[in-house]
Design a protein that fits this description.
Mean pLDDT: 85
Distance between the termini: 56 Å
Number of domains: 2
Radius of gyration: 19 Å
Shape: flat
Order of helices and strands: HHHHH
Oligomer: single chain
Number of helices: 5
Structural class: mainly alpha
Strand content: under 5%
Length: 125
């Protein structure tokens, strides 16, 4: 395959993905990493929601609600770039991959996702 054929193939995929986004609202690249795609769409509105907070679920205090939202936001941020940043940090600083630390972060992330599910219907102002 020469460089022209490679360039045409890349351009074809770009246009195919663009067409799918226009006609279906989501491209093939988006659904191949749907968790990442959704996290990128959710994080900004979550942060704005938290900054404009005027109420909280009746079964918890405003302080608890704020902590829960922080955990949820952290989980989505970690999914977007935290895991890769953690690996890069360890690599750049000559540290070996720490499985225990990774497991701890994965558990913390899962807790935030579970809280997101639990309080999904409470995400309104």
């Amino acid at each position: 395959m020469n460089i022209i054929e490679l360039k045409l193939k890349i351009n074809w995929h770009y246009f195919k993905n663009l067409w799918l986004r226009i006609t279906q609202g989501v491209g093939c690249c988006d659904i191949s990493g749907l968790d990442y795609y959704l996290a990128k769409k959710i994080i900004k509105p979550l942060k704005i929601f938290k900054s404009r907070l005027t109420s909280h679920p009746s079964e918890i205090t405003a302080e608890e609600w704020n902590k829960i939202l922080n955990k949820i936001i952290w989980s989505f941020e970690y999914l977007i770039d935290g895991e890769e940043n953690g690996k890069m940090y360890e690599k750049e600083n000559g540290k070996e991959f720490d499985m225990e630390k990774s497991k701890k972060w994965a558990d913390k992330q899962q807790e935030g996702f579970e809280l997101f599910g639990k309080y999904f219907r409470s995400l309104w102002i």
